[in-house]
Specification:
With about 600 residues, the chain is of the alpha/beta class. Helix content is about 35%, strand content about 25%. The strands form five sheets. Strands 3-2-4-1-10-9-11-15 form an eight-stranded antiparallel β-sheet, with helices on one face. Strands 5-6-7-8-12-13-14 form a seven-stranded antiparallel β-sheet, with helices on one face. β9 and β10 form a beta hairpin. The chain is globular. The two termini are about 30 Å apart. Bound molecules: fructose -6-phosphate (F6R). The site of fructose -6-phosphate has 15 residues, from α10 and α17.
Amino acid sequence: MCGIVGYIGNREAAPILLDGLSKLEYRGYDSAGIAVYNGEQIQMEKTMGRLKVLEELTQDGATLPGTAGIGHTRWATHGSPSDLNAHPHFNKDHSIVVVHNGIIENYIKLKKKLQAKGYEFLSETDTEVIVHMLDRYYNGDPLDTITKVMHRMEGSYALGIMFRDHPNEIYAVRKDSPLIVGAGKEGNLIASDVPAILRYTRDVYFIENEEIVKLTREGLHFYNIDEEELEKESTHIDWDINAAEKGGYEHFMLKEMHEQPKAVRDTLTPRLKGDEIVIEELGMTDEEIRSVRKIFIVACGSAYHTGVTAKYVFEGLARIPVEVDLASEFRYRNPILESDSLVIIVSQSGETADTLAALREAKAKGIRTLGIVNVVGSSIAREADNVMYTWAGPEIAVATTKAYSTQLIAHYLLALKFARVRGTISETEFTAMTEDLRQLPEQISLLLSHKENVQRFANRYLAAEHIFFIGRGIDYAISMEGSLKLKEISYIHSEAYAAGELKHGTISLIEDGRLVVAVLTQPELYKKTISNIQEVKTRGAFVMAVTTVGNTEVEKVADYVIYLPETNPYFTNSLAIIPLQLFGYYVSIGRGLDVDKPRNLAKSVTVE
Ligand code: F6R
């Protein structure tokens, strides 16, 4: 996720910007840049790669003198990582400079309008439209110009802006992307997050959506979008620096679980346009969508589990046969791929060796490939015929949470799009389902707000040796992910079973006090799974059930019940995963383990 820093004061700006950016490295980035105003002109240096490269390039900031500046670490979204796509971005005569965190959803439309007016674009970023728009509407009054541009932008943004005509000012604004302002003794600062400014001040102003701030050497002025000045209270921050990097959360995994409502919303909303699903990156005409006869979904680990869910969703909604493969199997099994197949490759990192090899295998056979990828510009993103990005932002904890949740969303959107084009669902069903999708971020937030209940329950199972997860259909897919989440971070042996399969062997492992987590969100399968719960109960199991609100019958057989808000049965996985992630997390920290870096595991598995 991009990081922003800005400084105006009595000290040299560049070293402060570089230092601030180094405190934002945890957010993940692929390029960095700074722009400093030396009193006459704004000078800029930016480069792909680590901050060290920028430090060398600027001799630790010495080549960019001046006491006002803005800096940025970029995590690529629009356009691959490159020097040109790195921020800051200038307007044509270098009189305005901008850094941006977020996504401008209507940038293509804005870019076309600007191009028609003669504006030339140097980068592939959505950000460049902002600086050219500021140029286009500039009337000598930065505040008025900024609000004019805000009225025209859709999407999310935190911006740091400098105008050559206003040497003693920096402007900042935010909408749905983080931005804070620090009031220091030797100058004032902006940043995406608290750690960047803690060395200079602990007095922080949290900027609300659509608020604008003017920073001068002497003070701070806050405005709303109607250009009315606002009074704001500062907050004194007393976190230590480590806690600050995690936004006050104890671990990255907890932080990333809490980022899921936003990640899901960011992945959904740009593609839900009115009552249409628009996936421009799909690159398939309706005719091509209709001609697909079979889908292969290929991935590893949790990404594979999203594929298992997607099989039920695609087959149920779009009536296309789906095969789900582990990438390490697919690449060697010589699958029968016909020219009317579509291969969907799912990967957070876009670098997983087996998944990449599977993609190349499909391409070598001339089959159309679609990547569902989180990291922009990664190998899978570059090599797949088309790529649909999940907008989860960088994931740092080894155990995936928010990337998993956004992969599910990508599958739902594709399945619904295919179903609509192929005419396998009615208009009414389609509308109701898109409405259910829109509710998911709020529902996920609600489940996260009950985390203490899950923690209390998890604390009872810190010494467990084996834990089983059961479910049917989509609930089996979620059981697989719940079980993986638990075992990878708690080191407790765990297995997931299709609930009807237990009595074919595994039930012999059920004994007094054994915890069985039963997921039952599928109305047509409730009764069947309740019978399976009864089978393990009579053999002494302790049962935690995860089910949809209203399904109170479960209370008769389960010992502990977690209720999920109501959604379409195809989407329940997005909700059921929340208590299961929390359960794994709390068991892990209860056992005193390193939850963000579990033993033997790497975040990106680039070897076979
Ligand atoms: C589990 C986990 C892994 C990854 C798998 C694939 O929490 O994170 O199972 O899902 O290694 O990684 P990507 O998605 O980067 O290809």
